[in-house]
Design brief:
Elements: E1 2-7, H1 15-18, E2 26-33, E3 39-47, H2 52-64, E4 83-84, E5 95-96, H3 117-142, H4 155-175, H5 180-185, H6 211-247
Parallel strand pairs: 4-5
Antiparallel strand pairs: 1-2, 2-3
Helix pairs in contact: 3-6
Keywords: Hydrolase, Metal-binding, Nuclease, Nucleus
Subcellular location: Nucleus
Domain DDE Tnp4: 1-170
């Protein structure tokens, strides 16, 4: 899960609200993709000045109170599964964020050597989650409209175009697996510049999630990181022991 900015064309009296941190007008789009670079959820239309975390909170509010927001498609929660979100989003049940302050190594760098549990977790987490950044990269390469400039039209029309492009993106992914754009971004180690939403820890009103649920979710992440680190150490020890056996053979 992540947010991306799509250029927007709005009346003069609305430009301030749609002006993002780069000084241009855009709509902030929240999207979820699967590991095959297909979009499974799109929430478009927020003003460009809105922080990713605020869009996320609004989306969750609509999901948690969907009877009052029937026009918003709900996120689907499956037991044992969770959405990967970055540090800009709230860590709570159903959403897994990285540890704040933990370093992230590049893909293949050191293979976890010298990393503590949190650092190793963040590195592997980043390797998994960059699929959403690669998906945005493909989407904008496929449809020049999404890179601007955008001709003036009603905002609802601009929102519909974004959603239609995401649907066409999925269609191309399923019917044209050898598409040049997908082939370019299919490599997991490709470096794609993420679109930060500004201050990663904004002062916004948190969702009403019981503290004990958040504590349990944080404890689950800690345990996951510890098990991951222990497994990495065991593999390194086994590999090192095997090499010693080979080289010490009479």
């Amino acid at each position: 899960m992540d947010g991306t900015h799509i250029p927007a064309s709005v009346p003069t009296n609305e430009q301030m609200a749609y002006t993002n941190r780069h000084g241009t007008q855009s709509q902030n789009v929240l999207a979820v993709c699967d590991h095959d670079m297909r979009f499974v959820y799109v929430y478009a239309g927020w003003e460009g000045s809105t922080h990713d975390a605020r869009v996320f909170e609004s989306d969750c509010e609509c999901t948690l109170t969907s009877q009052f927001h029937p026009q918003v498609r709900q996120l689907v929660f499956i037991s044992g599964k969770y959405y990967l979100v970055d540090a800009a989003y709230k860590m709570m049940p159903g959403f897994l964020a990285p540890f704040k302050g933990g370093r992230v190594s590049r893909v293949g760098q050191g293979r976890g050597r010298g990393q503590g549990p949190k650092e190793l977790f963040n590195t592997r987490y980043s390797q998994l989650r960059n699929v959403v950044e690669r998906s945005f990269g493909v989407l904008k390469q496929q449809f020049a409209y999404l890179k601007g400039p955008v001709p003036y039209s009603y905002m609802q029309t601009q929102i519909n175009v974004v959603i239609a492009c995401c649907a066409l993106h999925n269609f191309l992914r399923e019917t044209q697996p050898s598409d040049d754009h997908f082939m370019q971004y299919e490599q997991e180690d490709i470096q794609v510049q993420a679109e930060a939403g500004g201050n990663p820890y904004p002062n916004i009103q948190p969702l009403a999630v019981p503290p004990h649920e958040i504590a349990a979710w944080n404890a689950m992440r800690e345990e996951m990181a510890n098990q991951m680190h222990a497994g990495s150490r065991r593999r390194r020890f086994t590999s090192s022991y095997g090499l010693r056996q080979i080289y010490n053979k009479p």
